[in-house]
Amino acid sequence: MSSASSGCINLVADIGGTNIRLAIASENNCLSEVKTYRCSDFLSLHQVITEYMIEKQLKGQKVDACLAIACPVDNDLISMTNLPWKFSQHELKQQLDLNSLCLINDYTAIAMAIPFLSNEQKVQIGSGEFTADKAISVCGPGTGLGVATLVPMGNKWHCLSGEGGHVDFAPVDEVEIKILQYLQERKGRVSYEQLLSGYGLEQIYQALTSLNGWKNSHSVEADKLSAEQITARAIASTCPVCYQGLSVFCGVLGSFAGNSALTANSLGGVYIAGGIAPRFIEFIEHSNFRRRFEDKGRLSSLTKRTPTYVIIEPQPGLLGASAYLNQV
């Protein structure tokens, strides 16, 4: 039974390095009173949640809270990676006078949101049809490359988190082999995250400018394009190397997503999360993403059956925190 149905108010939060989003969630995972705060405006997590609770008149009420946070949550003492915030989970619960408090990793929250996404909150890429009660995989190019798997357990979902973004990059064609060699000279070991992230797209572009001999005929500034600039020029078809770079990115993403499908037998679907892919969905649809996803030799029959989606819901962390809290 969800806490909302037992007379409690569900408070959920998605805490990143820059912003913290808070909301009140219903037992049906409907979000209300969503508000975003800048983390730098507060000295502590306790301070910002207290302000929200006072503003929404939650003080003195019976509140269950689930906080999705961008750092490990295995220990009572939490030390945020990109903020000077440190706190004890036990003490935070007492300070806020909460009925219950649970902290989950931010990527666990994103994964937990997936079974509750409507067709308006996701875009299917290519063919395939999901199989109910089968594993679901999610990977998310963003600041890094997040990876998780959802496994059905009765009428609940269990999230298996991991560090799959750091597995070894495996090139599949001559261009990718050359990109790997370029990165190996500078990085040593090359993981998929070195290509499937914001800085990864920039490194793909830098490798291609070098391979195409641009460094001899163009300004050094050509190497300093941001991921956003590369994407914009690729979509507009104003720069052939940017277009090639984004095409490589989509192909590598397709291969990696297909690997995830094989690893977890993810007939429930493979979902692309993160802040990068939603910016160029049409480009992905016309790229070789889906072909590379399906192209798995003798096991291609499995990947051809498996659907792929891009998550376009703007608040998957809050939705997933609500889903987690409602099944506790």
The CATH architecture assignment of the largest domain turns out to be 3-Layer(aba) Sandwich
Mean pLDDT: 93
Largest sheet: 6 strands, mixed
Radius of gyration: 21 Å
Find the structural class using helix and strand composition.
alpha/beta
Approximately how much helix is present in the residues? 25-40%
Tell me the domain tally. 2
The number of helical segments is 11
- Number of E strands: 13
Return the CATH class of the largest domain: Alpha Beta
C-alpha end-to-end distance: 8 Å
Low-confidence stretches: 1-5, 216-220
Percentage of residues in strands: 15-25%
The order of strands across the largest sheet is 8-13-12-9-10-11
Outline type: globular
| Element-level helix/strand string | EEEHEEEHEHEEEEHHHHEHHHEH
CATH topology of the largest domain: Hexokinase, domain 1
Can you give keywords for this protein?
alpha/beta; disordered N terminus; 37% helix; 6-stranded mixed beta sheet; Nucleotidyltransferase, domain 5
Describe the model.
It is a single chain. This protein is of the alpha/beta class. The protein has 2 domains: 4-106 and 316-327, ATPase, nucleotide binding domain (Nucleotidyltransferase, domain 5); 118-312, Hexokinase, domain 1 (3-Layer(aba) Sandwich), CATH 3.40.367. It has 11 helices and 13 strands. The strands form 3 sheets. A 6-stranded mixed sheet has the order 8-13-12-9-10-11, sandwiched between helices. Strands 3-2-1-4-7 form a 5-stranded mixed sheet, sandwiched between helices. The radius of gyration is 21 Å and the shape is globular. The relative contact order is 0.17. Mean pLDDT is 93; it is low at 1-5 and 216-220.
